[in-house]
Amino acid sequence: MAIKATIHKAQVQIADMDRNVYGEHSLTIARQPSETDERMMIRILAFALNVPADDLNGRLELTKGLADADEPELWQRDLTGEIKHWIDLGQPDDRRLLKAHGRSELVSVYGFAYSTAIWWANIESKLTRLNRLAVWQIPSEQSQALAKFAQRSMQLQVTVQDGGIYVSTAADSLEINPIALRRPGE
């Protein structure tokens, strides 16, 4: 018998001053048995950093993630079902990114392992023509600290200002400084 996903709930208050996006979101996360607290929390962080100000071009949604290899971790689809933004985590291979780029208006990757810079150096030359690709590295010590915030029921505040990200709970806070390995249009 297969082990089922564990359900986590997160109330996420977002104040993104860099993009003028503010709001509160209730997330239900189906955490797969093979998913770590760190990966789950990076999914929540990616949601907070990419949620649109309104739903006019579709909502940003958590997908089945690891349970479905054909879907990203998050995506924003418009009302016709077209993918506006494809968001992956970790170190996807170049074929997956090429496929995602062909299906979406924007592709973002959030790496969070020590080896992210090495992974990117190995595949960057294969992806030079992908002008709608963003690749971010979350320093692993910061992503591991973020993993300590994981609970079955969470209340998180995410503040973004001048490129810095501040995540806090009632008991603790953390500053995250993502590193842009590639921005769209580069």
From TrEMBL:
<dbReference type="InterPro" id="IPR038590">
    <property type="entry name" value="YaeQ_sf"/>
</dbReference>
<dbReference type="Pfam" id="PF07152">
    <property type="entry name" value="YaeQ"/>
</dbReference>
<dbReference type="InterPro" id="IPR009822">
    <property type="entry name" value="YaeQ"/>
</dbReference>
<protein>
    <submittedName>
        <fullName>YaeQ family protein</fullName>
    </submittedName>
</protein>
<dbReference type="InterPro" id="IPR011335">
    <property type="entry name" value="Restrct_endonuc-II-like"/>
</dbReference>
